[in-house]
Structure formats: structure tokens, C-alpha cells
Amino acid sequence: MKAVLLAACLTLMAAEAQAISRYDPSRMSCGRVRATIAREGAVILRYQSTRTPGLPLYDRYVRSQGFCNMGEVRARASVPSADTKSCIVYKCKRVDTDRRFRRRIFPD
Known about the structure:
Helices cover 26% and strands 36% of the residues. By secondary structure, it is α+β, with helices and mostly antiparallel strands. The longest helix is centred in the first third of the chain and has 17 residues, at 2-18.
């Protein structure tokens, strides 16, 4: 019974991961990148690192806080686009709370 339940959970997680679209922002204008995120809600953007040539970087970028998991918040990020080096978008980041000082910490 436990094995069946575990298999069902893994199948659902795999299906959710395959449903998200992937794009290369370096081939799109910044406006088009933002419009794509706004239209789909959450996308994966994949691009080449500027510091390490040949190294692909990717992450999941979201339209709103509603696309983040519990314990995460929407945080500002930037990706390269065809018309600018720094297109401002948002991604989910895990938040740890420093209980002593009542502040939020974004671990990297």
C-alpha cells in the first residue's frame, strides 16, 4: 500500500514538472519575456552564463506569489534578453526567519 501511494505521488510530481514551458530569454526581447511569464504564470528560462562560457543556467520564474510553494516568496531576479543585459523578472526563493531579530533571510 505504501509503495503504491509513493508511486502515485512521484507520478504526480513528474507530470507537474513536465507541464511547464522552457524558453531561451537571450532570443527574446525583455517585453516578450515578461509577457510570456505573465501569460503562462510560471516558466523555465534557460540561458548561458556570462561568467563561465558554455555553462547553461536555468531557473523557474513566476508571475505572482501564488505560483510559489509554501515557505517561499516571490523575489526579484534578472535574466539576459536580446535587447538588454538585465531584464527584471521574479522567481521563488525559500525564506528562513531569524527569530531573534524577526527578519527574513534569503539563503543562496
